[in-house]
Structure prediction request, 549 residues.
Amino acid sequence: MIEVSGLTRYYGEFAALQDVSFRVEQGTILGLLGRNGAGKSTTLKILAGLIPPSSGTVLIDGIDIVEEPNRLRSMIGYLPEDPPLYLDMTVRAFVAHIGRLKGMAADAVAARLDTVLATAQLEDRQHQVIGTLSHGYRKRVGIAQAIIHDPRLVILDEPISGLDPVQIAEMRKVVRSLAEGRAVLLSSHILSEVEQTCDQLLVLADGKLVARGTEAEISAASQRVRMRIEVSGTREALAAALDNVQGVESATFGVVGDGVSSALVLVSDDAAREAVSAAIVHAGLGLRTYHGTRLEDAFVGATTTHGEA
Amino acid sequence: MHTWLVARRDLGATTHGFGGYLIVAAVLFVTGLLFQTRGLGAGAQYSHEVLETFFENAGGLVMISGILFTMRSLAEERQLGTDVLLETSPATEVQIVLGKWVAAMLVMAGMLALTLYMPALIFVNGKVSLAHIATGYVGLLLLASAVTSIGIASSSLFSTQLPAGILAGVIVVTMLLGWLLADVSDPPFSDVLAYSALWDQHFTAFMEGRLHLRSVVYYLSVTFLFLLGATKVLEGRRWQ
Prediction:
């Protein structure tokens, strides 16, 4: 179990992180949300053992990272947003090298290597030179190096940034599989991703923890729903269908492809959500996608309210 | 173990790339060229003079290649972001710096081993003592040790290779010119400056086949001080 208590970090006079406390149980994926400069990266760097906190404690299985950072480094796996890779090495040689660097014996690395490469879905690329891999595969190599030593905590900074939709779906599976027997902490600015991947969420704003809980608990703070809609029909027809629907607060329209239009719509409550679907059906438009989330609005509400306070 | 892991990784980076081979090839080519023009082909000379000329040429090239091999060592890790791999590992700063130095020394030793045929050629028409050859190579390795440590210390200060190489070059040249400053200084400063010169009092003896303990201590001291400096730079950057 990872227990963070009163974590504070100053850069000169500037408080990047103030009195942040939370717990992560083994087998849990915790998502860290926040705008740029909210303190996400500072939190991750402290937990990865890269920078010390100004005050506070981080306990991993009862061992204080502040007191014994060197001992804890072998219990943590860290993947920064840009994976740190030796591009001239093959995938297999690189992951094995990191395992040894993390303090594993050569036979222990050999015994675990195939499992780790399978977890990161890299078996078919294991003999390829990293410099020749695509961005998506490089991210996976980054994950493999972060888990080769079987850490208690895996820290992933924006694990899906720069990936295409297929790679995102594959990465989601990989991240979910990492939580077996360990805690995973990931940061992302893509709310839908956090929503689908994480068990628990933390929302940071101006270095402070402003919301925590499951996606449902945080979303409950907002009545408003953000809708993503795709229909077969013109953009104009979709706009006309939603015009004058009660409870629609804002809408932006676009064209997805030939004869398919989209809209991002903010509605005031569930009644308005039903009214929107009824209006689309009534207009004779073929409804293809109808997805709503309260998390985004709750996130904006939490971070904006705090920022304005 | 961590020292060897870091060293092995650095050796891999040198051997996987084109640059390392290019430097070695250039050094061997220029050394051979100078050996022919200033040594074997420079008219009648005593065999030991030819050998001394060889060590003099090789010494100059060791200093240049030592900087070229090490200016990337720590700077490139920062440039590529791979320093995170070292900083989040249990490897200590001493192990990281020693690993970089061991890798550089192995490359330098390998490169010097490839020059052995030149002293051997002297035996075709002349005669030199094996002790003279061995002493000269010990001097070259000690000089390489000092210069690579300077290169690594410079590399620890920057996140790109070029400024690291320039700083290392400036330090080496300044230390080479210590004897000039000694000439225009009064004792005891002149003695200190003369002793601290990288080449004059120390390498000349090795060239001539004389093994002086004070010169051995000097080169090892320079190595220690600059590697210590690099270690302190890394310690300052990393959470202890």
In short: The longest helix of chain B spans residues 130-157. Chain B has one domain: 2-237. The interface with chain A takes residues 1-2, 5-6, 9, 12-13, 16-17, 80-92, 238-240 of chain B (CB under 8 Å).
